[in-house]
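ok trying this again, last paste got cut off
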Amino acid sequence: MIVDAAKAAQIAALKTPNGTPFAIQKIGHVVLNVRDVERSAKFYVETLGFAISDVYPDTMVPGGMVFMRYSPDHHGVALVGSATRESTRSEMHHMAFAVATLDEVFRARDHLERANVEIVYQGRRRAGCQIAVEFLDPDGHHLEIYWGLDQVDHGGYVRPANEWRQTKTLEEALLHLPPGQKASLCDPNLLRSH
């Protein structure tokens, strides 16, 4: 299906129905198929700082399964060792992790580079206006660490497209802030000169 401007406007006009008998609060967890569960677990634990909550052996789940946490929840990401090939990113586009400060995004970029992780994008994209670093895990899953995602108030106001400020580096994102976004680094040594 091609989404042209008219179709995009139709999609944007969809409204949440009144009376839904439940209210989803957040993404609870994501489970990824990986080729080598041990290799992937090492990446998420040693490179991204996750903690392991539980592990299923191959006798419980073919390929084994690792439950990992980054918050008090038992797991936010789980890995199943059943993939037979690298991810083509055809089912899931990417998974994003929020951090509390902008400094952490800059530190994440430096840390990922030191770990020889492939960074595929850094800076600010468009809608949402978060500042982020995007990278690939060992199976080619596209991941993002971000700060500053726009918040939508109870009235439903969303920043208009003419206020988006796409950039291609973290430093450029700080120089070209969208209206109302307050962003600065506590540690200016994290900035790179161009």
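PB: full thing came through this time. The chain has four helices and eight strands.
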